[in-house]
Amino acid sequence: MTKDLNNNKEESKEIIFSQTNDLLNKNQDENESINYNFLRPQTFDDFIGQSKVKQSISIAVSAAKERKESLDHVLFYGPPGLGKTTLSQIIAKQSFADYTHLAGPTIDRAADLVGILTHLKENEILFIDEIHRIPKKVEEYLYTAMEDYRIDFPTGTGSFAQTMNMKLEPFTLIGATTRPGLLSSPLRDRFGLSYHLDFYEYNELTEIVQNSSKILNLQIDEQSALEIAKRSRGTPRIANRLLRRIRDYIQVKNKKKIDLSSINESLEIEGVDSLGLDRLDRSYIKILAENFRGGPVGIEAITASLNEDQLTLIDVVEPFLLKIGFLLRTAQGRKLTNIAYEQIGKNPPMNHQNELI
Fold this sequence. Notes:
- There is one protein chain.
- With 357 residues, the protein is of the alpha/beta class.
- The chain has 3 domains: 2-196, Rossmann fold; 202-270, Orthogonal Bundle (Helicase, Ruva Protein, domain 3); 279-356, Arc Repressor Mutant, subunit A (Orthogonal Bundle), CATH 1.10.10.10.
- The protein has 16 helices and 10 strands.
- The protein has helices at residues 9-17, 21-35, 51-67, 84-95, 110-118, 136-148, 185-188, 202-215, 222-230, 236-252, 260-270, 279-290, 299-306, 310-323, 338-343, 350-356, and strands spanning 2-4, 74-77, 99-103, 124-129, 150-155, 162-167, 171-177, 193-196, 327-330, 333-336.
């Protein structure tokens, strides 16, 4: 049995999904703190890097605004800290649209998601971070919501079962994920715009450091900004984090500006070397070199040896090691390269050298 509740839409929302209001209000409160980050760029012109992505999405936003339509659903994927959340906020501001921020792991019940969707305003931006972590049974409600702007919500059991058809306001879902392979095909195919964010170049990170320094009222020369960029693992979030730690250091040491010596001294305390490798990165390389003779070895064995979360290694540590050529992923497992051995001052095993030649 199917029942159309569109005529009594507001009443049905209040009766059936009133318990989700707390979750929605909680996430709206979080939005205020999330939006309050003065180092985030506010417009596409202020956003540095990802030029092809920025050009494409700005055209799509302008076209949708001219047609007075909601923007196509957008998927951003790539390593953490590259600007997925920032781009979603810029899209909302450039579209003059309301913005709701959710985290995938917090949406664990279908009623929560349905309640949030039915409260969205026309052309509102719904941003879901780590969207791949939404349970599959909950994710299925997004299919018709994204495609037809409606929800079919079953209620009752047995002979009392019925389906409520609820019409939604046109909205834009922006999903962000570090692991696009975990998205189901039906969900991934419903995103009209899909963008991969890659690591940043040194010149882009240097400009980001210089801009952030101006905002923080810090004096820094181009050479020092470049040095911070080289240690930032190709990631703006890390560049800004290192800059804030260096700011703390020069403040306590009563230095007037950031120079190479203050960068070296402060980041040595933080355990960040000249390549941007931190203590966990070096422990990963050392374990692989000493305990497993450079590999190949499975990620489970490395995780057990380091006593670290497996997802942390896969999503945070390994992407940068792969990027700089320190690590290989093979069918047999993880394997160190010769330049990784050079970094830790060790010689690779002879059989390891022959395999890599």
